[in-house]
Amino acid sequence: MNAVGEFRFSHPSISLRWAGATHPGMRRTVNEDSVFASFPVFVVADGMGGHASGDVASALAIEAFRGLKGRTLADVACVEASLADAFELVRERSLGQPIGGTTLSGAVLVDVDGVAHWLILNIGDSRTYLFAEGALQQVTVDHSVVQELVEMGALQQADARRHPNRNVITRALGAGERQPADVWLRPAERGQRLLVCSDGLTGEVEDAEIAEILADVASPAAAAALLLRRALDAGAPDNVSVVVLDVDAVALADEDLLDTHVHSLDDTIPREVRQ
Question: How many angstroms separate the CA atoms of 132 and 117, rounded?
């Protein structure tokens, strides 16, 4: 398997390191996942539809966020506009030819009164986790049949991963009636680690194992590679995508930025990792 690249970027309000990887899995020849990881945007889309080109739907959803890429924080209004564009791009394309739907999950760094915050968004069953102070929290809530059963008390969370309807989602882009994405706003804090992933990871690797890897592996690139490896070793019948990002510092002083090397932002788009 090819090495996973690690990237770094420092802004006057925050310093980050991150890595991302995507793989078609062990049973599929087409990767319908799309990933975009470039400051200040870190998102994963999991396309659905197979012959109906779920890969097209996921790529269109990601395309709506490319305009946020740059060397400044985004703002909430721009992220909301990108979400609206993602819905519209998928809808317009579906009018001309049938395409599949797609999930969308991730985090965008936004400026709130001069302070960096994570605007975390989700539609579907891809996930965004926050790992801080040794604890893993799933910030997003799956839009899925099994999640609804769990919330009703009809299914135990431990049994959700084995339920026959575990892959049936209740919201997506390009899935008929437009339903809103969920959003959360969290302050960015030093020591935070975020994980954005498609269900190709969470369907094969338990949260406890994910937490152990995020706790034990310091490098975002090494953590992303190991998470991907664990999913593949488990059989990975679905595409697998992961983005791991670390907050190294917040509210940096100017002198702290002088010795920072910045990779070309165009190079931060994860390439597909193959065995």
Answer: 15
Amino acid at 219: S
DSSP 3-state assignment of 68?
helix
* pLDDT tens sequence across 114-161: 899 999 999 999 999 999 999 999 999 999 776 657 667 666 666 566
Burial of 91 (0-12, 13-18, 19+ CB in 10 A): middle
Tokens at 51, concatenated: 């012959």
Residue 243 has pLDDT above 70, yes or no: yes
DSSP symbol at 169: B
Residues contacting residue 258 through CB under 8 Å, at least 6 positions apart: none
Task: Quote the CA–CA distance of 271 and 146 in Å, as a whole number.
Answer: 32
Res. 94: pLDDT tops 90: no
What stretch of H or E contains 8? strand 7-11
Alpha helices in the chain (DSSP H): 54-63, 76-96, 145-152, 157-160, 199-202, 207-216, 220-233
In sign, the C-alpha dihedral spanning 66, 214, 23, 175 is negative
pTM given for the model: 0.88
